[in-house]
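Good morning,

Attaching, inline, the backbone tokens for the sequence recovery test we're adding to the shared suite. The designed sequence is right after.
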């Protein structure tokens, strides 16, 4: 197992980014009139997970880090 130097080395973050890519790919085919409704909501929700993982990784205390992982 390699050394973790950044949140980008975390498998959970990599998996979350794969989810984001999939969501963006699949929402491309959503109806145009959903661009500011369902499409935007799915995209924001998917981006939220890796963003919270990265945010938690940067925290100094373990409790705060865990809280961000729960949110993700």
């Amino acid at each position: 197992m390699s050394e973790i130097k950044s949140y980008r080395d975390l498998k959970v973050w990599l998996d979350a980014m794969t989810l984001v890519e999939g969501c963006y790919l699949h929402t491309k085919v959503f109806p145009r009139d959903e661009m500011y409704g369902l499409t935007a909501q799915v995209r924001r929700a998917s981006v939220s997970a890796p963003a919270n993982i990265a945010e938690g990784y940067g925290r100094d205390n373990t409790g705060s880090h865990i809280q961000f992982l729960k949110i993700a």
